[in-house]
Amino acid sequence: MTGLEVGIASVILIVILIYAGLYIPVALGLMSFIGVWIMREEIDIPINLLSLSVADTVSHYVFATVPLFALMGFLVSKAGLGRDIYDVANAIFYRIRGGLGIATVAANAIFASVTGSSIASASVFTRISVPEMRRFGYGKRFSVGVVAGSSVLGMLIPPSAMLIIYAIVAEQSVGHMFIAGIIPGLLLAVAYSVAILLMAIIVPKFVGGNANASDGDESWRNLSLLDMGIKIFPIVLLVVVVLGGIYGGVVTPTEAGATGSLLALLIAIFKRRMSWKDLWEVLVETGHITATILFLLIAASMYSRMLGVASLPSQFGEWLQGSGLTLTEVMILYVIMLVLLGTIIDTASIILIVAPLFLPSIEAFGGDLIWFGIVTVIGAEIGLLTPPLGISCFVIKSTINDKDISLFDIFAGAAPFAVIMLLILMIIIAFPVLSLALI
Prior knowledge:
By secondary structure, the protein is an all-alpha fold. The chain has one domain (3-436). The protein has helices spanning 3-19, 24-40, 44-58, 65-78, 81-93, 99-115, 118-135, 140-151, 161-170, 174-180, 182-202, 204-207, 225-247, 253-270, 276-310, 312-322, 327-342, 347-364, 369-381, 391-399, 407-430, 433-436. α2 packs parallel to α15 and α6 (99-115) packs parallel to α13 (225-247). The longest helix is centred in the last third of the chain and has 35 residues, at 276-310. The protein is globular, with a radius of gyration of 22 Å. It starts with a helix and ends with a helix. The model has no long low-confidence stretch (mean pLDDT 82).
């Protein structure tokens, strides 16, 4: 077999093994190792490449941002800042048709700006938003759909773990990737809010809602401007310190993650919402996520080296250029691939598997790799809302305490938001300036 044939076969087998249920890093690493062994016919070469992959990944300075931002996100969640944000958003929007849905989107957008995790957002707002919306008569599918749809903002509005992973793979600036995610993230949040207003008018039975409901805790209805300011001040402070520090050139993304984690810990202690047990749980959860992502990055590094040995990216790029396709047509092909893979593979794995294949081609076509990264993350994130994988939907199902809401209800509720994401993705592909304007 030629190197090209081995490379293609390895990629196909990786997807098949993942679909069959094999742990993704194991599938990536194993097939990459075997692929290099077959091409070079000496086991010492893949062993050396694996050693290099481990050493390069562990020593990569940018990787330190992943555990630090994960730690900050968990601390913010434990501090109860998600509830504070939601109370303020409720007080502003509850009188509007579909107002609690818009409040959920707004709160998730703000929460995303300090956590960077869709999974954290889905978990937190399932506990906070869904019971509140159900209490006010909102439809069950709409309630869980809003939470699922708005949770993906965590992967787009900076800081974002997926933007960091893409920056490592594509060798781009983490700071530039963060800046590029601002406008698309806000655009998606606005699109969700407008869609909720339209759904409340066009399909009121699906949305539901009764602003006159009066049972339960409604202290947020009477919040004064001062109360709102006090509740939201910690989040504003975190955003200014973390993102302001990065964009102002005061700190690097890694230093910003450390600073933000320390500040989040101090806020949690000040609010008396952090016990020693809570701190230990946060550290353990951060360790689990860090280990998982590190394993993924090591396997992905080995995979990239296998592709290089097989010359697959360069030959794939030459084939695309010789096919007569335009950059727009290539991007349409790429998005279709992202959406299909998103139904069976998580976002990080999609970025690590597919992006290396297309990066040389996009550069050859004159596309900007920062813009390409935003397209990649949004396209892969659609898979968080679509069956059979739909990680955000499964997180909501495992978190929610309502036997009347099935997994099908969650996927059905998330479907309109997945469609909106696809429409926004098309706009960003057509107008790259939306991603690059602030850089």
